[in-house]
């Protein structure tokens, strides 16, 4: 039996005035043009907080403060499994700009279903919203 690689990924739930910051993956990315909470892969030797700050800075050009863990979901894809850890975060400085994402939006939780999310993010949102 072949071992399936597990990738640890962190994502930031950033809420302001009842709206959440979501980002759209680039057309050249894996799962192109799907939406997700901003974040990315945790590198070897990194803490989740350090990875979150690095990834959000790289993708949106803002400095964040990583807060408490909100939820965790393990989602199997065809060639690997993603262990997605979702953290409550806040922007400390800067204004979001689409540096390494196709686009970003501020949306209410009621608007989530208007955006096609990655399967792992979809599962996490269902946990957050208490459905599924």
TrEMBL record:
One of its GO terms (biological process) is DNA replication. Transmembrane segments: none annotated. Its cofactor is Mg(2+). It holds the Pfam family NUDIX_4. Signal peptide: none annotated. InterPro entries: MutT-like, MutY_C, Nudix_hydrolase, NUDIX_hydrolase-like_dom_sf, NUDIX_hydrolase_dom. Residues 5-132 form the Nudix hydrolase domain. One of its GO terms (molecular function) is 8-oxo-7,8-dihydrodeoxyguanosine triphosphate pyrophosphatase activity. CDD domains: NUDIX_MutT_NudA_like. It catalyses: 8-oxo-GTP + H2O = 8-oxo-GMP + diphosphate + H(+); 8-oxo-dGTP + H2O = 8-oxo-dGMP + diphosphate + H(+). Gene3D superfamilies: Nucleoside Triphosphate Pyrophosphohydrolase. The keyword DNA damage applies. Keywords: DNA damage, DNA repair, DNA replication, Hydrolase, Magnesium, Metal-binding, Mutator protein. It is an enzyme of class 3 (hydrolase). Its EC number is 3.6.1.55. Belongs to the Nudix hydrolase family. This is 8-oxo-dGTP diphosphatase.
């Amino acid at each position: 039996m072949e071992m399936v690689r597990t990738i640890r990924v962190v994502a930031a739930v950033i809420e302001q005035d009842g709206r959440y910051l979501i980002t759209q993956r680039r057309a050249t990315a894996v799962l192109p043009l799907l939406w997700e909470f901003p974040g990315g892969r945790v590198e070897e030797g990194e803490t989740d907080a350090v990875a979150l700050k690095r990834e959000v800075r790289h993708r949106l050009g803002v400095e964040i403060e990583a807060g408490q863990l909100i939820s965790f979901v393990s989602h199997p894809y065809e060639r690997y499994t993603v262990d997605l850890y979702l953290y409550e975060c806040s922007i400390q400085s800067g204004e979001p700009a689409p540096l390494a994402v196709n686009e970003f939006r501020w949306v209410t939780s009621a608007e989530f279903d208007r955006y096609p999310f990655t399967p792992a993010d979809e599962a996490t949102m269902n946990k957050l919203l208490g459905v599924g």
